Amino acid sequence: MNAPLDVPELRAGENHRLRPWSLDDLDVVREASEDAYIPLITSVPSAYTDTEGAAFVRRQWARAAEGVGYSFAIAELATGRAIGQIGLWPGAHGRASVGYWVAPSGRGQGAAAAALLALSSWGLTGLRIARLELHVEPWNTASSRTAERAGFTLEGLLRSWQEVGGERRDMYVYSKIGR
């Protein structure tokens, strides 16, 4: 087992923060489970119950406890309400993967870009990771714009890269490099 990781709180722009998950965040897990896409690409349950929602939150805690990665709730600064998730998953050779989602009620506020910028800055400088990568389906222009606003560079298309909803899908690969 890897050493446990500490999930800190990070400011994400003027209106959001990244923080550890709480069992008080079940409303956003419920909302995300009702989204057509989020449960296909994450461990958010597709059929929500309070038990499944709590299990999702406990999985986020377990990732840090097992040293696998950092999973943050994206929360509104003013209210503390969780509106999404962002995670950083360290790998070999100074690389890490990043992934994020924002529930429908939290979209259009710049939360994903602010969260991605905060997380990538922390990962590159605080954790001294040399390279961050994220993968986006070619049709997902909102996520591509988010990556680019946060300073990620499109490197290319990975054909048949990932299984989503039972079928192989192409993915764009974006990266951000530490300087």
Account of the 3D structure:
- The chain has 179 residues and is an alpha+beta fold.
- The chain is globular and about 40 Å long.
- Helix 4 (111-126) crosses helix 5 (141-149).
- The longest helix is centred in the first third of the chain and has 16 residues, at 50-65.
- It is 30% helix and 34% strand.
Count of discrete structural domains: 1
Mean pLDDT: 95
- Element-by-element helix/strand order: EEHHHEEEHEHEE
Number of helical runs? 5
β-sheet strand percentage: 25-35%
Number of strands: 8
Roughly how many Å apart are the termini?
30 Å
CATH architecture: 3-Layer(aba) Sandwich
Percent helix, as a range, is 25-40%
For the report, how would you describe the main beta sheet? 8 strands, mixed
The CATH superfamily is identified as Gcn5-related N-acetyltransferase (GNAT)
Shape: globular
CATH fold type: Aminopeptidase
What class do helices, strands and sheet pairing give?
A: alpha+beta
Features:
179 residues; Ribosomal_N-acetyltransferase; GNAT_dom; Acyl_CoA_acyltransferase; alpha+beta; 8 strands
